[in-house]
Amino acid sequence: MPTWPVLQARGKMLAAIRRFFEARSVTEVTTPALSRSATFDAQLSSFEVSDKTNKLFLQTSPEYALKRALAVYGEALFEITPVFRRGDQGRQHNPEFTMLEWYRPGFSVSDLMAEVVALLNALPEPPEIWRAQSKRDVPVYSFRALFEQRFGVNPNEAALSSLWQWVQETGAEVGHLAPHDDDQFRSDCLDFLFLAVLQPSLDDIFFLTEFPRCQAALAEIDPGTGTAQRFELYWLGTELANGYLELRDPVAILSRHTAMAAARVNRGLPSIAFDSALAEASALMPACTGVALGIDRLVMVWLKASTLSEVQLFSWPNH
Amino acid sequence: MANYSTNEFKSGLKVLLEGDPCSIVENEFVKPGKGQAFNRVRLRNLKTGRVWERTFKSGESLEGADVMEYEMEYMYSDGEYWHFMKTDDSYEQIAADKNAVSEGIQWLKENSRCTVTLWNDVPILVVAPNFVDLDIVETDPGLKGDTATGGSKPATLSTGAIVKVPLFINIGESIRVDTRTGEYQGRSKSA
Confidence class of residue B145 from pLDDT cuts 50, 70 and 90? Predict the structure, then answer.
């Protein structure tokens, strides 16, 4: 349970976030937490809620709804909202948490990373680690470059058998990974190699960009490098934020869905219907970048706590 | 027994892994942004005492193990079995074989208390208290007054265990031993 000073600090941080966006003319909106469509990401599992006529899902992020709003209004907007992810429960995970997500028409990935830094600089009472880091800029690493330096091959092109061999050569227990001949397995291996081999030598706080194609999710692919135009912000090994140059081509969105659907079948996960509203909205929205930031984790690292339950009221299993 | 999913794992939960009963020591949920979520779990094998580290796909489950721990009094050995009695007024007795008593038995004198782990009502492990007081039945003669040189010598205890003691300790004295390390802690307070 958070102490009262922790709750006060959290409240002040939320107020500072709202002031930050107001000053930059980014408008706060509210989208439904209950939706007819669910994420098709094979790593996320939605809670289902049903009434007599509808099967509904609690949102795993406001991404789809915000994109529909962007398609209609085309303006910079943000939302601070509860999101729900079934099964994600641990020291730094809770099945319900608060997400800040915002979209910036006309922004590049670097523009948005700069705005994430500006937002953190606008928060009250920064911890020493952030004061020290923000003085000398937050380093930006390319996943592709780090991987090529260490393994001598582009992560898009490395053979699955090589990736699996490198995973096993780390000597770590990987009983949870079963080889599949699909992009999701490539992504699992790359993720594991990043955590086990690449990340330990990086700074305490950094951005990671230029992700492999199989981790593009709903981000554009850079035609030059073949990498996904997304970024993540890491803080002492914890992922705090995750942004994309948003994919707008409905054909590409359908093919990402198809690849994920195959991965879901390979893993015995329930299939998720293609959300044509998302594809239509994506085609209509302006070129933009968007980023999601976990508020509870932000409060956790800002206050130097090590578990979400220290900063989040009634976290599971005490919900 | 019920099955337990990874999100029900917590320290102290008893589960079956590779046919052996284990106690979960630590359970960490790991979910990198884009990869398979998994649980990194440390489990103590209750038969061997060894700690295993395993990873499980989140949502996987393990069968629960019917494991109970009781405080019991050690009564006697008939050479093949070691006999214990519950201290909960039931006076229920159980017999443990050599595998179960393993190293714990060298610290137990008759009528002393210990922790006995039962799996499906069969004893699999006997653990002595962390500190026990035992009499010395054999050691070289003491060097009177030599409390400073720091030398040591082997001494046989009433249970058969052999520990290193300071040179000034004599046959017949009672000493305190840390059963986790087998190290001499001092003369018994009551002696």
Answer: low
CATH number, domain with residue B92: 2.40.50.140
* Among candidates B28, B35, B53 on the partner chain, residue whose Cβ is nearest the Cβ of A91: B28
pLDDT in tens, A150-199: 999 999 999 999 999 999 999 888 888 888 888 889 999 999 999 889 99
CA A228 to chain centre: 13
Does B147 share its domain with B123?
no
**What's the CA gap between A5 and A226, in Å, rounded?**
47
Residue with structure tokens 């909202």?
A: A81
Are residues B22 and B66 in contact, defined by beta-carbon separation less than 8 angstroms? no
- pLDDT at position B186 over 80: yes
Give the CATH superfamily of A4-135+248-258+274-310: Bira Bifunctional Protein; Domain 2 (3.30.930.10)
Q: Which of B7, B33, B57 lies nearest to residue A176, judging by beta carbons?
A: B57
Q: Which residues of A touch B31 (CB under 8 A)?
A: 43, 88, 90, 93
Domain with B161 in it: 131-187
Please check whether residues B136 and B181 belong to one and the same domain. Answer: yes
Kindly provide the ipTM of the predicted complex, given to two decimals.
Answer: 0.77
**Partner residue opposite B7 with nearest CB, options A87, A175, A184:** A87
**Interface touch A90/B57, C-beta < 8 Å:** no
Q: Give the pLDDT mean for B166-189.
A: 89
Q: Model pTM?
A: 0.80
User: Nearest Cα to A66, choosing from A80, A49, A48?
Assistant: A80
Per-residue model confidence (pLDDT) at position B32: 74
Residue ending a domain, choose from B45, B63, B81: B63
8 Å CB contact of B37 and A88: yes
Instruction: Give the number of domains in chain B.
Output: 3
Which residues contact residue A223 at a Cβ distance below 8 angstroms, ignoring those fewer than 6 apart? Answer: none
Is the confidence at residue B191, as pLDDT, over 50?
no
Closest CA to A232 of A243, A222, A223: A243
